[in-house]
Backbone:
């Protein structure tokens, strides 16, 4: 499977210190094969691999992750991107009723979806109604009625005995276009604010089906046409989606049967090839097995790497904690380097204005004195100066003599005075922070949380 392939291809990278171009090429070859095996459309695979290569090559080697983990992280992020990033909301009509038309092959899950969507909409305060326009199979209308009953929403159907079939009788039994039109009219008079139009599908794409769907579309002018796609179908997904895009046009995609062991290739392809967002996901036969589509979950599913991804998160967190502990040790023993100093300032800036933060800390007064002179605007200059130093200078600031200061000033576009000020301030801060750490729990400030 795709996840097996990816996992094994990524294993090859484990234990390497650095991502070499050869590593990236080899891994990308494996990922390419794996995606093709999972029925992802070729143009999508090409684009995907191109993005992965670019990002992997430009990726900084992170201290927190090994190369394999880094590639997994990149692959995951790119997958989420291809799957559509953020989820789009349903497009509601300015003047109700909002008309949602379902289209797709027979067995895709349209009728089931009609009920799920109705329940979901009702939970959000809408008053949906279903319209039975599948007059192809004898029991299709009955099926929708059952679904409607389970969902607790009315069904407009052309057969006698239906809860609100009166007008459809006059509109002509057997004509799905007329039923659709009458159904929307019924919703308007009965004040249902959303109409879900269930349509007929066939086993394969054909002219008659497309024409009928297009006629229904023209008759009711839907606000959304949702293309319902069985995620178990493989390469056919793209050609089917293409046919529906040409024949009917659609505004969004719903993936069904995600509870099966679909390999995910359809999901990956359909978004990219049709340019239409995947809006909902159907994950079972029960009405509650339904949710808005989450690209991140789909990506984990495709990669089969839910565990791997959370391991990566943990690795990053552990790394942060280790860094913090190491810094605390250095602060306590007065060994803080300029690199640490800069990192601390940047970290504090990320957390918000200095003033807010220092008030929250024990020993706040000392900290304020130590760091307080550095205002937010100056941080960029401070960063530039420290970046202008050699690693040795950052590690051992005592070696920064007059000629080094001049070189650093020239290199970072500031005056020697500014370099002097920074270095002085650093030594002062280091002394103060060390004293503070000592009071807070001995050398290294061991055992103290933030
Ligand atoms: P339609 O022909 O497009 O209207 O498809 P249906 O709604 O009748 O669904 C066809 C079959 O697939 C039915 O047996 C449904 O119960 C089943 N089905 C629909 N959606 C899902 C789903 O998300 N998961 C599973 N496991 N079965 C589904
Ligand atoms: Mg149906």
Residues:
């Amino acid at each position: 499977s795709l996840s097996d392939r990816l996992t094994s291809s990524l294993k090859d990278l484990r234990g390497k210190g650095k991502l070499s171009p050869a590593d990236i090429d080899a891994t990308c070859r494996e990922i390419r094969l794996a995606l093709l095996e999972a029925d992802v459309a070729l143009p999508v695979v090409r684009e995907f691999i191109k993005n992965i290569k670019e990002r992997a090559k430009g990726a900084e080697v992170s201290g927190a992750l090994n190369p394999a983990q880094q590639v997994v992280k990149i692959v995951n992020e790119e997958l989420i991107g291809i799957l559509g990033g953020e989820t789009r909301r349903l497009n509601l009509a300015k003047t109700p009723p909002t008309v949602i038309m379902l289209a797709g092959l027979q067995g895709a899950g349209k009728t089931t979806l009609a009920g799920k969507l109705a329940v979901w909409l009702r939970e959000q305060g809408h008053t949906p109604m279903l319209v039975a326009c599948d007059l192809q199979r004898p029991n299709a209308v009955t099926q929708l009625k059952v679904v409607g009953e389970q969902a607790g929403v009315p069904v407009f159907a052309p057969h006698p005995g239906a809860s609100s079939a009166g007008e459809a009788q006059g509109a002509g039994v057997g004509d799905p276009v007329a039923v659709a039109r009458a159904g929307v009219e019924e919703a308007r008079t009965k004040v249902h604010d959303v109409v879900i139009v269930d349509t007929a599908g066939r086993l394969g794409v054909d002219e008659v089906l497309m024409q009928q769907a297009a006629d229904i579309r023209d008759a009711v002018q839907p606000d959304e046409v949702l293309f319902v796609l069985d995620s178990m179908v493989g390469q056919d997904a793209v050609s089917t989606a293409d046919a529906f895009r040409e024949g009917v046009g659609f505004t969004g995609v719903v993936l069904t049967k995600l509870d099966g062991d679909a390999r995910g290739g359809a999901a990956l392809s359909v978004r990219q090839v049709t340019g239409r967002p995947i809006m909902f996901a159907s994950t079972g036969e029960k009405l509650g097995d339904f949710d808005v589509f989450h690209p991140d979950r789909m990506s984990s599913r495709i990669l089969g790497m839910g565990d791997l991804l959370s391991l990566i998160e943990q690795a990053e967190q552990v790394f942060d904690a280790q860094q913090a502990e190491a810094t605390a040790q250095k602060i306590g023993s007065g060994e803080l380097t300029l690199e640490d100093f800069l990192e601390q300032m940047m970290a504090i800036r990320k957390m918000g204005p200095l003033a807010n933060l220092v008030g929250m800390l024990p020993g706040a007064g000392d900290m304020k004195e130590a760091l307080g002179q550095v205002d937010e605007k100056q941080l960029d200059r401070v960063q530039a100066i420290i970046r202008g130093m050699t690693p040795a200078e950052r590690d051992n600031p005592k070696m920064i003599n007059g000629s080094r200061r001049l070189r650093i000033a020239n290199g970072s576009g500031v005056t020697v005075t500014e370099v002097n000020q920074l270095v002085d301030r650093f030594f002062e801060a280091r002394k103060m922070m060390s004293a503070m750490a000592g009071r807070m729990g001995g050398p290294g400030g061991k055992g103290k949380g933030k």
Observations:
- The chain has a mean pLDDT of 80.
- Residues 104, 106-112, 201, 256-257, 259, 282-285, 289 surround guanosine-5'-diphosphate (ligand 1) (CB under 6 Å).
- The CA atoms of residues 231 and 267 lie 7 Å apart.
- The chain is about 55% helix and 10% strand.
